[in-house]
Amino acid sequence: MPAKRNKSIIISYKVLRRFIGILGMALPVVLVLGGFLQRGNGIQGSISSYYHTNMQDVFVGTLWAVGLFLISYHGYDFQDNLITNVSGMFAIAVALFPTGSVPDTTQPLGVFQLSPDLSGTLHVLWAFLFFLLLAYNACFLFTKTGTKQPGPKKLLRNTIYRACGIVILASLAGIVVYMLFLQGTIVSRWAPVLILETLALWAFGFSWLVKGETLFRDK
Asked: Which of 19, 80, 117, 149 has the fewest CB atoms within 10 Å around its CB?
């Protein structure tokens, strides 16, 4: 009986990891496609900008779901639990503190009705920290091997985890470079923030799908 219960727990955690991965990868696709359902909507400049479209509920609901999944997830040790729990809190904070919509507007935003400047600043901070922790999780926690000698599939998964972490960090670096030096230039036409955020979310989601043994699992 205990063995059966332990197996059920293991399966449930694998399913949880898969859900986190699917939500992360699906979010940008669903937002972009769903945004076209509202007349006059084009492709937004960032994932966060969809808060101010017909996709607001999907944006907020998905972030809450990812956040709660991460908070409820229990890793192998204290550090694993701490990183996933805090990253889950940051995901929820991103939803609670939306970014501004129209420049120069003074209309309060979000649950706490903060000024657009303050809410936008906190939004960027929480999002940046959220992605940093996701990159750390992929590079340093998912790659742990314990006391056993890792097999070829585990070594492959570790390479994938590190690659996903690097993609997340590179995407963050690209967003910073754009916001500091390239805003208002011809580059803006291509929605670079949206593209880089999408790459980061896909890398995040893919790493969790691999962790959930949807892909590249041991025989």
From this structure: 149
